[in-house]
Design a protein that fits this description.
Elements: H1 15-30, H2 32-47, H3 68-79, E1 84-92, H4 100-113, E2 119-124, E3 129-134, E4 137-142, H5 152-163, E5 180-186, H6 192-213, E6 217-222, H7 224-258, H8 261-285, H9 296-320, H10 325-352, H11 360-380, H12 383-390, H13 397-415, H14 417-435, E7 439-440, H15 453-464, E8 469-476, H16 486-500, E9 505-509, H17 511-522, H18 536-549, E10 566-573, H19 578-595, H20 607-641, H21 644-649, H22 652-668, E11 671-672, H23 674-677, H24 679-703, H25 709-736, H26 744-766, H27 768-776
Parallel strand pairs: 7-11
Antiparallel strand pairs: 1-5, 1-6, 2-5, 3-4, 8-10, 9-10
Helix pairs in contact: 1-10, 2-8, 2-12, 4-6, 7-8, 7-9, 7-25, 8-9, 8-11, 8-12, 9-10, 9-11, 9-13, 9-25, 10-11, 10-12, 10-20, 10-24, 13-25, 13-27, 14-22, 16-17, 17-18, 19-20, 20-24, 22-24, 22-26, 24-25, 24-26, 25-26, 25-27
């Protein structure tokens, strides 16, 4: 190999790659208009898929089709009707629902609710089927009928009945009688993206009508159907409000940093095309947006701008050093295109590793971001430099001076490497300790900020009327048995009594409660008759008589399986953590195994149980993706640079920020939910970009320019330091917008991402320079090195 100092590129192990980059850069500048037109047309064609993008508003989409909790919930709904429920609360300002005015309002609302689209059943305090015995007959009638029984004595009798009825108290009326509820069950035909909003909007219109008729009665609502709709509404609200805010912030930050209107315009065009093209491609693939992945445009924008800034800053610096615009663009492409290929490639690998998550919205989020990273690479390496080549951009010596200042700072940190290493080590030891304080906890209601009406209504209803979590147990009657047998009902009653004694339990309702109440009624309301009948014949007769007395639509099909082989027991729990809820279900199953026949075993089902398991499901896949991502990025860098040491050097600056961010989270918050758990994977693919640019420029300064380790550090940071600061500012501004989301999954993701990215920038600027020197100082200086000092003016 030639040793002449006039051909330094030939000594670069990657000289052929660099030569290819130079030829590509020259072709790009020469064919700039063709590139601009072609990329715009391709992006427009890809963005046609935007009209195919749909929002998922079904909480079941958070689970894989073979998830055992989802299957259990589906089996429950298939057996006891596919219900999407809403609970409407009436709160009179005078503090009691037992007045003619309040009861009339609830009765009117109950009647009108039957007319809502897709309604299957309506249960309320007023239409509760109260059983009374007349001679040998059982008479079942609504507890309250408008126009009758409005005397003070009649109202007092209704109050006494309601507040002594276990099936009503803590379900459809509060223990103090200040709040009453109306439970509405919907059966939504496909597609739910259409039928769900239709049902919710009709319900809200009816609630507005009730408020207008009775201004002194507050009307609020919660329930599964409103939860699903809240996911949809908050996702769309974030897309409509946060994306414009993010654009405005990023433009301001970029203009302050670059002081170049043309540079900002080029970046704006690039990120806009990237977002539309990437989301359009996602639409063609049929991937649905969810409340998690709705932040995709925000994240892709920050990634696109971060990539653009490296090219723009390099161009402005070269022009500030005296190069022409076309020469500066060519140099920027030649120097940065290979690095961007590795950086965006590792971004895509990192995002695609999120597909290992067992939570489908998280996996789809990774697919969207992975596709977006590829689109960003293509546009940053083609459309952006072509725009810079035609726009009247000007150079700035200011950036040269600032870059050299950062280079000198990096060189000074080399001399202070021991204190830096000790300080970083101590900080990370503290962070590692605080990380252990994080607990995996999720509550799907708490995903929403108190600023959201659904959250406020839900909090009020749960604190005044019903509990927070509902768990269902479909208790089978055993082989050959029926739910009408006395033995089954007695065992079911023992189970319900044990549940009521548990500290987490707010309310329990079972088929045994119905049978005991009817049996007491048939025996003159004697207190001793409030029990399960002694023999199968009597028990079956009590149940049959009651069922035959019920009006259409208010039967027991929501409690008894149609073949009478099982009944549904409902447990309402207080506000507990997801971990505690899983532990409660495990304790319940242990009691059932020890105290009930083998044929009566059942496990808990319902959305509360499903979301309690989702954290564990997500963390397992996320950890696998994180480890795989770390290994892949380090291996790729090591192979491309043909240096194990530099591959290792790229590892620490990108692992430590996540550790420190999770340590801070453990110190001040401690609750790790669905979105926070994926931040490590999400941000690793982003923060590694600045590290790659610095490491690659350091490697080039060593191999091509032949600089000593310290001089190479100064040279690398004089070139990439300002870009690192600018990209960090843009990333923090972009992710910081998520903090303003009313959907806490996105808000928490924004907080953690900002922490991780800001810490990563500090680590890149403080730890990486002395780390590069420390691992490379014993490497011999290239014998044919043409330079020994940093190059100025680049």
């Amino acid at each position: 190999m030639a040793s002449s100092s006039t051909e330094p590129r030939l000594r670069d192990p990657d000289a052929s790659h660099h030569a290819l980059a130079i030829r590509y850069a020259a072709w790009l500048v020469r064919r700039r208009w063709m590139v601009i037109v072609a990329t715009v047309l391709l992006c427009v064609a890809a963005s046609a898929g935007l009209e195919r993008i749909a929002f998922s508003s079904d909480y079941r989409d958070f689970f894989r089709s073979d998830d055992p909790q989802l299957l259990a919930n589906q089996a429950l709904q298939d057996a006891y009707a596919d219900d999407n429920q809403a609970l409407v609360a009436f709160v009179p300002r005078d503090g009691t629902v037992f007045t003619p005015r309040a009861l009339d309002a609830m009765a009117r609302f109950t009647e009108l609710a039957w007319r809502l689209p897709h309604v299957r059943r309506v249960d309320s305090l007023t239409n509760h089927q109260h059983a009374e015995a007349h001679d040998d007959d059982l008479r079942v009638r609504p507890l309250y009928q408008p126009g009758t029984g409005q005397t003070p004595e009649a109202i007092a009798a209704i109050r006494a009945i309601a507040l002594s009825e276990p099936l009503l108290v803590k379900r459809l009326v509060s223990p103090d009688g200040s709040v009453a509820g109306i439970s509405i069950s919907f059966t939504l035909p496909a597609p739910t993206e259409t039928t769900l909003p239709e049902a919710v909007h009709a319900l809200r219109a009816l609630m507005d009508q009730a408020r207008a008729l009775d201004p002194d009665i507050r009307v609020m609502a919660t329930g599964g159907i409103l939860l699903d709709n809240a996911f949809d509404e908050e996702a769309k609200a974030d897309l409509a409000t946060l994306t414009p805010l993010m654009y405005a912030l990023i433009l301001v930050v970029m203009f302050v940093a670059l002081r170049s209107a043309c540079g900002v315009a080029a970046a704006l065009l690039t990120m806009t095309l990237a977002i539309f093209a990437a989301l359009g491609m996602v639409g063609w693939f049929g991937v649905k947006l969810t409340a998690i992945s709705v932040s995709t445009p925000t994240i892709l924008t920050t990634i696109a701008v971060a990539n653009c800034l490296h090219v723009i800053v390099y161009t402005i610096r070269r022009m500030g050093a005296g190069a022409s615009r076309h020469d500066a663009v060519r140099d920027a492409v030649a120097a940065n295109a290979p690095i961007m290929l590795v950086a965006c490639g590792t971004d895509a690998l990192g995002f695609f590793s999120m597909c290992l998550s067992d939570v489908p919205p998280v996996a789809n989020f990774g697919v969207m971001l992975g596709i977006g990273a590829i689109v960003v690479l293509l546009l940053s390496a083609s459309f952006l430099p072509a725009c810079l080549a035609v726009l009247p951009i000007s150079g700035q010596q200011r950036m040269l001076r600032q870059g050299h200042a950062i280079g000198r700072m990096a060189g000074a940190l080399v001399a202070w490497r021991k204190p830096v290493f000790i300080g970083v080590a101590l900080l990370n030891l503290a962070a590692a300790w605080f990380v252990t304080r994080n607990q995996l906890e999720d509550n799907f209601v708490d995903y929403f900020s108190p600023a959201v009406e659904f959250r406020r209504d839900t909090d009020f209803i749960q604190s005044h009327l019903s509990g927070v979590h509902t768990v269902y147990y479909a208790v089978p009657s055993g082989a050959g048995g029926t739910v009408g047998s006395a033995a089954y009902l007695r065992d079911l009653d023992r189970f319900a009594d044990w549940l009521r004694a548990q500290p987490e339990v707010f309310q329990v309702s079972s088929l045994a409660d119905v049978v005991k109440r009817v049996h007491r009624t048939l025996h003159g309301d004697a207190p001793t008759a409030y029990r399960v009948p002694d023999d199968d014949m009597a028990a079956a007769q009590v149940l049959l008589v009651y069922e035959l007395s019920l009006p259409p639509g208010l039967d027991l099909n929501d409690q008894i399986r149609i073949d009478r082989s099982a009944s549904k027991l409902t447990v309402v729990l207080r506000d507990i953590t997801s971990t505690a809820l899983v532990a409660f279900d495990q304790r319940v199953q242990a009691w059932m195994r020890a105290n009930l026949p083998a044929g009566m075993q059942a496990s808990g089902a319902g959305p509360s149980i499903m979301f309690s398991h989702i954290g564990e499901m997500n963390v397992a896949g996320t950890l696998q993706g994180y480890v795989l991502q770390i290994l892949l990025v380090s291996v790729v860098i090591g192979l491309v640079l043909r240096s194990v040491r530099l591959g290792f050097a790229s590892l620490l600056p990108n692992v430590l920020p996540s550790l420190m961010a999770f340590g801070l989270w453990g110190a001040f918050v401690g609750q790790v939910g669905l979105s926070v758990a994926v931040v490590g994977v999400l941000t690793y693919g982003i923060i590694v970009d600045d590290t790659i640019h610095s490491v690659f420029k350091y490697h080039r300064a060593r191999t091509v320019l032949g600089l000593s380790p310290r001089a190479a550090v100064e040279n690398a940071y004089s070139i990439s330091g300002m870009a690192v600061l600018f990209t960090t500012s843009v990333l923090v501004a972009g992710f910081g917008v998520l903090i303003f989301s009313h959907f806490d999954l996105n808000a928490d993701m924004g907080i953690m991402s900002v922490l991780t990215i800001a810490i990563a920038a500090i680590v890149d600027l403080v730890l990486l320079p002395p780390l590069l020197f420390a691992i490379d100082r014993d490497t011999p200086k290239p014998a044919s090195a043409p330079h020994s000092q940093p190059l100025k003016g680049i």
